[in-house]
Amino acid sequence: MWLCMVYNETDTSVDFRLCQDFGLILSVFSIIYLLVCFPLGLCYNVLLVVVNLSNKVSMTMPDVYFVNMAIAGLVLNLVAPVELLSSTFTRWHVWEYNNEVYITLIILFNISSLVIMYSTTLLSLDYYIERALPRTYMSSVYNTKHVCGFIWGGAVLTSFSSLLFYVCNHISTKMVECSKMQNKEAADAIMMFIGYVVPAVAVLYAFVLILRIRKESTPLDQDSARLDPSIHRLLLASVCVQFVLWTPYYMTLLVHTVAGAPGYISNVHYLPTYYFLRCVSKLLAFSSSFAMPLMYRQMNKNFSKKLQRLLRRLHCRDQSCPNERSTVQQVVT
């Protein structure tokens, strides 16, 4: 295990045994995730995207955000096996990746995390707008699609701003420009502030506004029925789950930013515990890629109807189904 390399192979100290135990636990967690969570997340994310995109007419504003998060979840599904089957997470590793692959994985992981966090944040804000101003089109499906496009663009730009620090931290020090930027703590600080602090403050602000408007009865409340009542429960559950799963990862970034590699945590006595917690936190972050579509599947009442409509459409592709055609026409009208 890579985190046990600081000890001698013949070392029988308590720290070495603890390191071995952490490595075994982490290996078991990684295998369980790959056997159970990974296929479930992959299937449900694909299902969520396909079902909603095949029923674009009936999509609502929350559906657009959940499709956006599902696409980001698919990106995490691509990153997870590469990392979890390496020596970083398991004793029985399949491969070792070089610095180029490492940088690519960081880019994809950071982009996905930013898209997920900001989609959750803007979902909260748009839900408040929908409740407060139900007759406006500020939170319409059309506008939400453009907002999701900006989310991906902003995530890419933000990831590349911290990418410079990661790249310069892994290439030769012969380059004078990069030798001055070999600071991974700066990259973690950027991701910590933009990827967690800003969304957390925005979500807290949105929840305060939502709670305030729920207490105040207004004549416009009857118009807010345009959104399914279950959306409120789905919103609360999705925000809570996302922040529960991603908070440990961002806390490890905060620790690394404050303490730094050459600081307190670099002591041999604390290395196994720190890296174990860091890997577990990243495993929890990967878990968001299957927790969100499962929750959406269970709590969205319209999803089952859309799925049945899609299955009937696939069944009737090579057959004449007048009932299905009439149903589709009714949905369009």
From TrEMBL:
The keyword Transmembrane helix applies. It is found in: Cell membrane. One of its GO terms (cellular component) is plasma membrane. InterPro entries: GPCR_Rhodpsn, GPCR_Rhodpsn_7TM, GPER1-like, GPR146. Residues 44-296 form the G-protein coupled receptors family 1 profile domain. SUPFAM superfamilies: Family A G protein-coupled receptor-like. One of its GO terms (molecular function) is G protein-coupled receptor activity. It is a multi-pass membrane protein. The chain crosses the membrane at residues 24-51, 63-82, 102-125, 146-167, 189-213, 234-255, 275-296. Keywords: Cell membrane, G-protein coupled receptor, Membrane, Receptor, Transducer, Transmembrane, Transmembrane helix. It comes from the Eukaryota. This is G-protein coupled receptors family 1 profile domain-containing protein. It comes from Perca flavescens (American yellow perch).
